[in-house]
Amino acid sequence: MADDGRPDAALGLEGVPHTGEAVTPEGLMVEPSAEDFDHARPAPRHPEWYKEAVFYEVLVRAFADSNGDGIGDLRGLADKLDYLSWLGVDCLWLPPFYASPLRDGGYDISDYRAVLPEFGTVEDFVYLLDQAHRRNIRIITDLVLNHTSDAHPWFQASREDPDGPYGDFYVWSDTDQHYTDARIIFTDTETSNWTFDPVRGQFYWHRFFSHQPDLNYDNPAVQDAMLDVLRFWLDLGIDGFRLDAVPYLYEREGSNCENLPETHAFLKRCRKVVDDEYPGRVLLAEANQWPQDVVHYFGEPSTGGDECHMAFHFPLMPRIFMAVRRESRFPISEILAQTPPIPSGCTWGIFLRNHDELTLEMVTDEERDYMWAEYATDPRMKANIGIRRRLAPLLDNDRNQQELFTALLLSLPGSPVLYYGDEIGMGDNIWLGDRDGVRTPMQWTPDRNAGFSRCDPNRIYLPAISDPVYGFQSVNVEAQLNSSSSLLHWTRRMLQVRAKHPAFGLGTFVELGSSNPSVLAYQRRWITPDGNEDLVICVNNMSRFPQPVELDLSDHEGSIPVELTGEVPFPRIGQLPYLLTLPGHGFYWFSIIATESGEAP
Amino acid sequence: MTRLAPTELINELAGPLADWLPKQRWFAGKDREIRAVRPVRATELVGDADPGLVHAVLAVEQDGGGRTGAEDLYQVLVGRTQRLPEHLAGTEIGTVAGETCYSAVHDGDLGTTLLDLIAADRDVAGVRFRPEPDAQLYPGLRSRPAGVEQSNTSLIFGHRYILKLYRRLHPGPSRDLELHRALHRVGCQHIAAPLGSIDCELRGEPVVLGVLQEYLSNAVDGWAMANTSVRDLMAEGDLHADEVGGDFAAEAYRLGEAVAAVHEDLRRALGGEEGDRDRLDAAVDRMHRRLDRVLVAVPELAPYEPALRRAFDAVRSVPLPLRLQQIHGDLHLGQVMRTNTAWVLIDFEGEPAAEVAERSTLRSPLRDIAGMLRSIDYAAHQILVGDEVPHQLEVRAAEWTERNRRAFCDGYAAAGVDPREKATLLRALELDKAVYEVGYEHANRPEWLAVPLAAVARMTAGEECA
User: Which residues in A lie closer than 8 A to residue B340 (C-beta atoms)?
Assistant: First the structure.
């Protein structure tokens, strides 16, 4: 901490606009305003775009370095928009790029209105957003509502001056014996949710790391300040926010301090700001909980949902892995059967992998042991309570399984979120600390630093993967662009197929059971506003062995299934159960084309 | 046109029916000549349309084959039409008075009639179609026949209902229906809810003709589930049962919980009693008598006779009281269905080998557990049948059995009483079941004989050492 006591001293943002660069006579900090910057052109109008979108999670740090300092940046990402547009993604999800001491991967935000200098500036972000919108690509980013970094000027002011305008911005207490029913989330580093601050002489409340004090939402000024943070980025043109760690905003004695009614009330306020002032932008809830609990974050069903437009479906992902390992559809069937209906204006976000470990919070202890045994064969692969691996190495680099998993991701109900690099089958580096093993540089070319940066290889933020199987010499975008049979081209084709069928994003989901437990089959159905039916049937073999399956398609008697990747018509559906055979880990997507009156020609 | 009255129609159709019946899988007397087929009753369900529908109960008189009074009752549904659609060509029975008669269970539109009659709570000339008191039925769904079945024919309506039509009829109450109703009354979560029934009177006694139930549209039977796991195990060879991806133990555990819950529900719904020493002795005597019979036919069993008899006799001195109640009676992996949310037990008809009256006597729930444990053993070994089996795979199969038996018992214990607390009785019941299997396999599938024999050998080996 700086000695001069200025609240912005810990930011390291001299020379760029930032919070607390000046203080008004009333003691309020001056914060950057959206009016100080250009605004990006708006994205093309499409109110429920998030229901049909394919999301792509990209770490600014890891994607492309424009200035040769060894760290990816916003301008570098902007340079790669043509690639992302070619691939066919609709929306980028950027983990936090705000000013931060980076003690929690940027989720410890020290200024909501400034960009981390090594990533660029607010102007660079506006440029990226403008260029993305030009290509019909949207961008959302994380917003951490629950807490700030302890370097945030608000916290500095709060600890220095308990009676000042920020004195009540955080949850302070003379004792650490409040809210003892709240669990400790980071059990491997934290022993209490309270930490003593010697400056103020009180304890402060934190649900995560001790350097991340929780904001005090019981203070109306905090609520207003955070709504203004939303407005700042929405004014610049951003398409939405993934709201990080939403269940924990409030604390109440005698509760576990999660999912409290007051938290929902504040989310409704956020939603109202979006609906009234920024229609077409989305809120995505990150609540790592069971679907029947998460569903409350969509809000009131009768209004179509009045909290978040989207929420991640956490338990689905580990169960996809489990189903394939067990060669049984039931881990997936069961979690989908337990997933309640959601309001009409909402959709799930689903994913196979992301920047965090493969989360095992949403599985039972016994299942967690199982997943660890199956997918984390080296102890270093285990992190916190998850598995830190990328998709390809998790699947032993088996192309068939990678395709099956991706096909499931793209066809199960919800908007799919791809993780950067998985489209080329990138590997991981389990010898890097924490979760960095899955955050290595994007592999563009076989050249120096995988084409990610021109810098001296010793300067790069993390070494590019260089092992013989997944190393950038063999696994990179350039090589895969030149090979039409590559995973990259396959992924692109699947996104193109998906984009042609609104049923994937908008349709109902009905499982089509069969007597073969290794085959997961389901129907997606959507009636377009002009009355046309888009009907897709997906059949997936969870087993490594070839499987037969007889499906009851009697509802579609007389129709013809047309396989979607090759447009090949299959035999007409008749009276008898429809027989299909699938190769090991094979899958089919069919469009069901109704024929005149259903009569045989 | 005027049609023949239903009884007349069936009378006229007697000849073709005599040819048609032996070709049906559900027909029990395939090996004996049919002497006569006559209608015991015939009812017109659809009269004024084409196709028409006639419900009939047939008395089929056959050569004795050692049996006296060899007349069995069968239920048939006959469609009649001027023009049989092409897709029903294979279902024709014969032509009478210008109308083609065919097996109506294959006609999805005529199937709808049965559902509609149940939903409407109708009595058609003594054939009573009834919904269950709390059932909310959606009529009008077309039917399709379920896959091949041994002794019944089932029609599936949409993805909602399944109607089991009994073929060979046994006057008297239906244990299957009564147990389903009792379990449903106490809110059992592990059965397919009963939704309706069809019955009539025959020879002064009520007889259940069909049962409508919730259709488990996304379910897989336990046998297929277990096989998926065993297949995975055998393909690896070098991995243990707890190491392969397709581990079944979690499913076996949940299955154990489900069986315990059903036992508890049966006890709540229908009560129970405490078995005394006499009941126990009678049960032990039955085990010995079964062993006597099987030993005559299968000399390979002889080396285990002393150990088997000791195991049976040990039951005579197990501590009382012994809890008796209604049980499933024929529990094995083929009688349980994995749905997307739970394991479900089906077919509460009771032990097929027992006389109908005997099936409803109260029994120890351990009998069901013994049946399931034997079934788990079968699942592990069935893909090894008939081949020269590498020793390693035998070891793997044994590991799989042991792991899943333990998981099943753990699951049962978590929701009820640990069956292993009554180890003496459980072991005797398992051995008794295995002896039955030895007899059955010897008579029907000799290549499978090794499976129960090996189990007898394994289960008596430790005892010999002791």
Answer: 330, 333-334, 336-337, 511, 513
Specify if A491 maps to a domain: yes
What is the extent of the structural domain holding A227? Answer: 22-146+218-498
Inform me whether the C-beta atom of residue A337 falls under 8 Å from chain B C-beta atoms. yes
Residues A328, A391, single domain; the answer is yes
Q: Are residues A520 and A476 in the same domain?
A: no
CA distance A109 to A116: 9
- Contacting residues of B for A333, CB less than 8 Å apart: 218, 340
Contact B246 A325 (CB under 8 A): yes
Say if pTM beats, i.e. exceeds, 0.90.
Answer: no
Last residue of a domain, one of A443, A471, A498: A498
Of A334, A518, A543, the CB nearest to B340: A334
DSSP secondary structure letter of residue B21: G
Written in H, E and C, the secondary structure of A325-385 is HHCCCHHHHHHHHCCCCCCCCCEEEEECCCCCCEECCCCCHHHHHHHHHHHCCCHHHEECC
Measured between CB atoms, does A484 come within 8 Å of chain B? no
Residues A337, A316: Cα–Cα separation, whole Å: 11
Query: Does B220 touch chain A if contact means CB atoms closer than 8 Å?
Result: yes
A474 and A429 part of one domain: yes
> Nearest Cα to B246, choosing from B368, B403, B141, B369?
B403
Same-domain pairing of A257 and A322? yes
Query: Distance (Å) from the C-alpha of residue B353 to the closest C-alpha of chain A?
Result: 27
User: Strands B99-103 and B71-81, how do they pair?
Assistant: antiparallel
CATH architecture of the domain with residue range B220-462: Alpha-Beta Complex (3.90)
A434 and A514 co-located in one domain: no
Are A326 and B87 an interchain contact pair (Cβ–Cβ within 8 Å)?
no
Chain B stretch 239-268, residues whose beta carbon is closer than 8 A to a beta carbon of chain A: 243, 245-247, 250-251
Retrieve residue B390's tokens.
């590498």
CB atoms within 10 A of CB B446: 10
Residues A119 and A64 in one domain: yes
Tell whether A396 is within 8 A of chain B (Cβ): no
Residue pLDDT tens, chain B, 466 long:
578 999 999 999 999 999 999 999 888 877 788 889 999 999 999 998 999 999 999 999 988 655 555 688 999 999 999 999 988 988 999 999 889 999 999 999 999 999 999 999 999 999 999 999 999 999 999 998 887 677 789 999 988 999 999 999 988 888 999 999 999 999 999 999 999 999 999 988 999 999 999 999 889 999 999 998 888 888 877 777 777 777 899 899 999 999 999 999 999 999 999 988 998 999 999 999 999 999 999 999 999 999 999 999 999 999 888 889 999 999 999 999 999 889 999 999 887 777 767 777 889 999 999 999 999 999 998 877 766 777 888 888 889 999 999 999 999 999 889 999 999 999 999 999 999 999 999 988 888 898 999 999 999 986 544 3
What are the tokens at A138?
């949207």
Asked if A525 is an interface residue toward chain B (Cβ–Cβ < 8 A), one would say no
Q: Which residues 353-392 on chain B approach chain A with CB closer than 8 angstroms?
A: none
Statement to judge: residues A473 and A342 lie in one domain: yes
Residues A480 and A534 in one domain: no
